């Protein structure tokens, strides 16, 4: 296929991602308001799971095709990008506030999940069905805990207040419609972008592992990026940070809990340095969030700087 046509398809995919993210944030916040659910819970569940749908689709597809490096690299690269690129950019736009729950439960839970995944990969150069089942159980536990949190009485110290607006509330039927259309656009846009990007990468003879950690990871993280940036510009920073953490947990426990059950993943091209970088970013996120319960602009710039360095090393090192 002509490279110019591939680049055009990439641009169409990005446009679909932006529109999908805008609809998803607008509909998701309205549903949260109607159900009296704190936005942070929406960010950790509905939005993070919906925007991680492209990673799930791509990882299962790659696993079935026996391209384990893309399947696993997709998840690892997305987790790294969610923190380094997305959280970094979001904090640059506006410092990101963190709740007590984020600091005491969600982020430590993500760190433990990341360590567990790293151990599995080091042992097997991939993830087998038994390990996938363990990860999936962890995801179910996490989801159950968030459902319990959503039922807490209004005013709990673990939640941030809903953003107030002078605008006329969006009808709930439209909000649900926006969420559905948003998810469709996100999945379709991500698949279009990733498929086109991979074809471009093939033309330049890039390895599967690097494709997974860079192009596919960035492509499937575009929904999280678009959703978090739109939320940040709208002042919904609690949704933005919840989206990043929830997406990483979903990637680690759900995607790698489901994909290897369909077909065990082997990824010989994933290196120890890639695992170390994924762990480093998770630890850095916990540290930056612990400082005054806020990720400042300077800390966001640091995350973005380290992420850029890692991408340059992957592509040219």
Structure, briefly:
The protein is an all-alpha fold and 317 residues long.
Question: What would your notes on this structure say?
Answer:
The chain is mostly helical and 317 residues long. It has a single domain, classed as A middle domain of Talin 1. Helix content is 80%, strand content 3%. The chain has eleven helices and four strands, in the order ααααβαβααααβαβα. α1 packs antiparallel against α2 and α4 runs antiparallel to α11. It is globular and about 50 Å long. The model is unreliable at 156-166 (pLDDT under 50).
The proportion of residues forming helix, as a percent range, comes to over 70%
Helix-strand category: mainly alpha
Give the rounded overall mean pLDDT. 83
Strand order of the largest sheet: 1-4
Biggest sheet character:
2 strands, antiparallel
Enter the CATH topology name.
A middle domain of Talin 1
- Give the ordered list of helices and strands: HHHHEHEHHHHEHEH
CATH class: Mainly Alpha
Judging from the principal axes of the Cα atoms, what is the shape? globular
Total separate domains: 1
The rounded Rg comes to 18 Å
Name of the CATH architecture: Up-down Bundle
Number of helices: 11
DSSP summary, beta strand count: 4
Uncertain runs: 156-166
By CATH, the superfamily comes out as NCX, central ion-binding region
Seen as an oligomer or otherwise, the chain set is single chain
């Amino acid at each position: 296929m002509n490279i110019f046509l591939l680049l055009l398809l990439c641009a169409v995919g990005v446009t679909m991602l932006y529109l999908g993210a805008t609809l998803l944030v607008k509909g998701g916040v309205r549903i949260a308001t109607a159900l009296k659910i704190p936005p942070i819970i929406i960010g950790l569940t509905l939005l993070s799971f919906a925007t991680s749908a492209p990673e799930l689709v791509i990882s299962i597809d790659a696993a079935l095709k026996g391209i384990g490096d893309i399947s696993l690299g997709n998840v690892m690269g997305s987790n790294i990008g969610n923190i380094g690129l997305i959280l970094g950019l979001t904090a640059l736009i506006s410092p990101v506030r963190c709740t007590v729950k984020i600091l005491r439960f969600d982020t430590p839970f993500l760190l433990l999940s990341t360590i567990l995944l790293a151990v599995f990969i080091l042992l097997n150069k991939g993830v087998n069905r038994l390990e996938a089942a363990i990860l999936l159980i962890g995801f179910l536990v996490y989801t159950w805990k968030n459902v319990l949190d959503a039922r807490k009485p209004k005013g709990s110290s673990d939640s941030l207040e809903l953003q107030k607006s002078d605008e006329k509330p969006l009808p709930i039927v439209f909000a649900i419609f926006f969420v559905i259309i948003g998810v469709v656009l996100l999945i379709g846009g991500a698949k279009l972008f990733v498929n086109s990007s991979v074809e471009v990468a093939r033309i330049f003879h890039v390895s599967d592992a690097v494709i997974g950690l860079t192009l596919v990871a960035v492509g499937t993280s575009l929904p999280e990026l678009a959703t978090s940036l739109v939320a940040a510009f709208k002042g919904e920073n609690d949704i933005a940070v919840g989206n990043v953490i929830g997406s990483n947990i979903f990637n680690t426990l759900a995607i790698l809990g489901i994909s290897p059950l369909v077909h065990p993943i082997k990824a010989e091209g994933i290196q120890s340095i890639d695992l170390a970088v994924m762990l480093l970013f998770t630890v850095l996120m916990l540290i930056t969030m612990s400082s005054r319960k806020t990720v400042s602009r300077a800390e966001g710039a640091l995350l973005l700087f380290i992420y850029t360095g890692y991408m340059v090393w992957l592509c040219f090192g």
